[in-house]
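2024-03-11 09:14:02 INFO receiving multi-entity request
2024-03-11 09:14:02 INFO entity count = two
2024-03-11 09:14:03 INFO echoing inputs for audit
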Amino acid sequence: MIKIDHLQVHYGQHLALDITQPIAIRPGERVGIIGSNGAGKTTLLNALLSLIPSRGSFRLGASIEDIAVHLQQNNYAQTMAIRHVIETVTGKKIGQDQRLDELIDYFSFQDSLKKKFHHLSGGQKQRLTLILVLFQDAPLVFFDEVTSGLDFESRQGLVELMDSWYSQSDTTLCYITHYYEELETLVDKILMLEDGRVVCFGDKTDLFQQYCGRSVYTLSRTPEHEALVSGFAQLKAPPHLIALQSPDQASDERISQTLNQANVNYKRSISDVEIMSFNAKAGRWS
Amino acid sequence: MIRTRRHLFWYELRNVLGNWYTLVFGMAFPVLMAIVISQTALQDVPEAFKSTAITGVVLGFAQLIPMAGIFLGHSAIYAKELEDKVPLRMQLFGFSQRSILWAKLQAQLVFQTLALLFHFGLLYPILGYDRPSPAGLIIYLLVLYSLATIYFVLAHGIANFFRRFGPAYGLSMLIYFTFMLLGGMMGVTSAMLPKPVRALADLLPPTHLSKPAITDLWIGSAYNYSMLGQAMLFFGALSLLVLFGSFIYRRNRAY
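2024-03-11 09:21:47 INFO inference complete, emitting structure
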């Protein structure tokens, strides 16, 4: 569905994106595109959509008309009620098209139809674009920071709705986000960018095993916890966390036994994208 | 997804009519100005010439409909849309740039039709201007719709060049007031202007549309079309130049 051989984007003298390794995303795959601010995630999206000049070679398996895109900022005409915007974009009358009505109900958007765009809340604005994007029923969909600016509850709700909507579909998804926890259920591959370059690309589970091992235990970083787990192998982690690496079942048992005996709050994961990304980045630059 | 141009047309018409600025300055203001000027500035005009003078005022202010409604209105709305990336959003939903542009022009021309009906319909019982000859009416409307299209092209070019509301609106306002001043709509007739400025004013269609002679065109008397035709051609070519210049300027820049 997407094949990149090499791709470069310059902003003036600055090389904002420099993909040198081939990347292939097959139909039906769901890819989470991650990286810190300025990593090149949105630049990659803009280059693929030809919204910015780029150099290199890439191919999309769908024409631009068959691609649905949820941008970071989605604005609409402010001179009319939102229902007219929806009817224009979808080409359907609200109340006369079952699929459109289902989507409006699905996202609980009924009460917002009479409002103008600038009177919608942040969450309502995101849901509006989601309705329009999902209605397109496109074979390839890009989501760029769909949940940014939303509170935790709204984010969770949106991701659950999207996950459930796409659970029975063979749509190819490219999901750009800062929030790693959203990727745990929504995607099966990860493309990680940093400073415009690819840190890693592959199956989410494979990448986790490659950079983290069998499982990861995370607990808050305190002097007591540091002393408690000093004998275990540790992974790179955000400053407030300690991440323990468990390469096999025996290690798993030793770690959990130690933590349970000390009555410490901890989390065990076999797919922690955040810890994986820290260690992929450390491995890439070390 | 099945969508028709009809949907886009209605969307753009709502967009135009939903903008209070267009309604106030493109619809209400010309009527108001025509009434005020007719009731005040034409007090001393002898009765025999009064009807012709009123007709000149009504016709002169009718040209504010494309100037304020379409030129200023489209420049402001479209620049704001570009700043907010609304056209990009619509393109990503599969609407081509050409179809959006066409729908916007159609909507603006429909707005002009409504505004002209309002203008002439309301002012006839109030001021009693001269009735046009059939040929005069057709030619006058042809000029006004051609001018509206030219204003649209110029406004589109300015908005596309800046892609920001502030500078696009500022420049459009400057052009608007320059046209009003040079066109004799701000109390200074073109005959009172210095010679080089008058030469410039003669290159612009508003000057000719606000001259008293425009009433000859309206009622079907002898009218010299050469100056108006020349101004239309010059202004049309200049506007196209601005539009294509903006496309070239924006070609290799990020959206």
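2024-03-11 09:21:48 INFO post-check: Chain B has a mean pLDDT of 90.
2024-03-11 09:21:48 INFO post-check: The interface with chain A takes residues 1-4, 7-8, 10-11, 14-19, 77, 81, 84-86, 88-90, 92-94, 252, 254-255 of chain B (CB under 8 Å).
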